[in-house]
Amino acid sequence: MRNSLISTGIDESTAPLLEYAESVAALHRAAGKTGDNAPGFFIQTFGCQQNEADSEKLAGLCVLMGYARVARPEEADLILVNTCAIREHAEKKALSIIGQYKHLKDANPSVVIGVGGCMVTQELRVSKLKNSYPYVSFTFDTGAMQYVPKLVYNALSGGKRSFILTEEWNLNEGLPSLPESPHSAWLSIMYGCNNFCSYCIVPYVRGRERSRPVQAVIEEARQLIANGAKDITLLGQNVNSYDGGTDIAGLMRRICALEGDFRLRFMTSHPKDASDRLIEAMAEEEKIVKHFHLPVQSGSDRILKAMNRRYTFDSYMDRIRKLRETVPDVSVTSDIIVGFPGETEEDFEATLRVMREADYDMVYSFIYSPRNGTPAARMEGQVPREVSSERMSRLLSLEAEISDRRNSRFEGRTLRVLADGISKNDPDMLTGKGDPVRPIHFKADPSVIGRFVNVKIKKTSTFSFEGEKEE
Ligand code: 5AD
Ligand code: SF4
């Protein structure tokens, strides 16, 4: 199925900026670059689902500008890099890829390279790109995607390189979106974060919380469903403090009331906002996937306080109990940081304890990475790398033990699976999404891709399930 452009809300101030997209397309037409001869665009995305959703909007803008997607950066006339800043490793990876693009610019001086996302919403990184990467034409920060056509137009017409921090925190309304997959869709419902967890760069690079109006979200959901979406994930840095005219529970109930055979997910949630109303909506609405991603970060009250998380081990476990009582067989997943400044062996053991008691299906675990400008980067007691690594390997083996046991409950059960695509490891198998969090590999004809099928689970392992399609 060919993907269609999805329109995302209305914004009076975005409309004039989108006229630059038409000007870029006109430049390409004048050069005879249309149809099969259209110039290529390539987007390299790092980081979280929010960035993936933003990249779908960048792709929508590229289509408006007359570009066609190509599979490799070598074939592209326009390369956009959407960066992440959550940990140092993410920034290093982005800088290394951007470094490799120098060869592409040498081989084809007309290629335009732009860098956006969380990394370049920091002054230090913007000046590094400006000064050390002369073949990068422009940067654009996370609240400024609407300027991309203007920046591309400027680059194509020989204008100066542009490295501006706009500090605009808009809602990205009115940008077209080109979904990567017609059947699994991201839907941003809010942006930014007000929590200022002491380790986290997000509030600085994505601004304060702002929610999209309910009507704009519902209209986008309606279009996605009409376009074939069967699995929709509502996105936001702190999705359960959504406040666009109703709360997240009310919003999800209204989306569930739309006609169509689809499932609804949401991420990421903060434990302090995991309301009873949300948990009850999950229990009552058949279309909401029974999966709650509820990052705990640490099990130690002392560390949680230093992290500015505003809950304790006990109040967190109270939410988990409420969830498990209300939503039978729910899958719970979490994020955990190892080696936060001042973390002692005793603190770390409290983290292992919360893992056992919460009984997570899966944990995303990270070694603490100091981020410039955050309070934790200046705290005393930075934990040596060897200590963090040793703790991490203990955490990973406990996680594997818990997940293996949790996953085995699905053996012999039949799950309703959305066939997502051909398996990357085995071209004879399909990969799909079932209700829980693991990918499910099964044999079936590729014609079922994009549809729900029943799969009997034969084998489970730590990272995936295997099964057989039932007729
Ligand atoms: N170091 C390590 N992990 C971090 N996260 C956020 N900031 C940092 C950091 N400075 C993790 C948190 C968050 C996830 C998206 O990334 O666990 O939930
Ligand atoms: Fe970062 Fe905390 Fe906001 Fe999540 S809730 S984005 S960890 S500041």
Write the layout of secondary structure elements.
Layout: E1 6-8, H1 14-30, E2 40-45, H2 49-64, E3 68-69, E4 78-83, H3 88-107, E5 112-117, H4 123-132, E6 138-140, H5 148-156, E7 162-163, E8 175-177, E9 184-188, E10 190-191, H6 202-206, E11 210-211, H7 214-226, E12 231-235, H8 248-256, E13 263-267, H9 276-284, E14 291-293, H10 301-306, H11 313-326, E15 331-338, H12 345-358, E16 362-367, H13 385-408, E17 414-422, E18 430-433, E19 439-443, E20 452-460, E21 465-469
Parallel strand pairs: 2-3, 2-4, 4-5, 5-6, 6-7, 9-12, 12-13, 14-15, 15-16, 19-21
Antiparallel strand pairs: 1-8, 10-11, 17-18, 17-20, 18-19, 20-21
The protein binds 5'-deoxyadenosine and iron/sulfur cluster.
CATH architecture name of the largest domain? Alpha-Beta Horseshoe
What is the general shape?
Answer: globular
Distance separating the two termini: 24 Å
Largest sheet: 6 strands, parallel
Global mean pLDDT: 95
Radius of gyration: 23 Å
Strand order of the largest sheet: 3-2-4-5-6-7
Low-confidence stretches: none
Secondary-structure content class? alpha/beta
CATH homologous superfamily title of the largest domain:
tm_1862 like domain
Total DSSP helices: 13
Structure commentary:
The protein is 35% helix and 21% strand. It is an alpha/beta fold and 471 residues long. The protein folds into three domains: 16-164, 3-Layer(aba) Sandwich (Rossmann fold), CATH 3.40.50; 184-408, tm_1862 like domain (pyruvate-formate lyase- activating enzyme); 411-469, Nucleic acid-binding proteins (OB fold (Dihydrolipoamide Acetyltransferase, E2P), Beta Barrel). Strands 3-2-4-5-6-7 form a six-stranded parallel β-sheet, sandwiched between helices. Strands 17-18-19-21-20 form a five-stranded mixed beta barrel. The protein has a three-stranded parallel β-sheet with strand order 9-12-13, with helices on both faces. Helix 4 links the parallel strand 5 (112-117) and strand 6. The longest helix has 24 residues, at 385-408. It is globular, with a radius of gyration of 23 Å. The protein binds 5'-deoxyadenosine and iron/sulfur cluster. Iron/sulfur cluster binds next to helix 6.
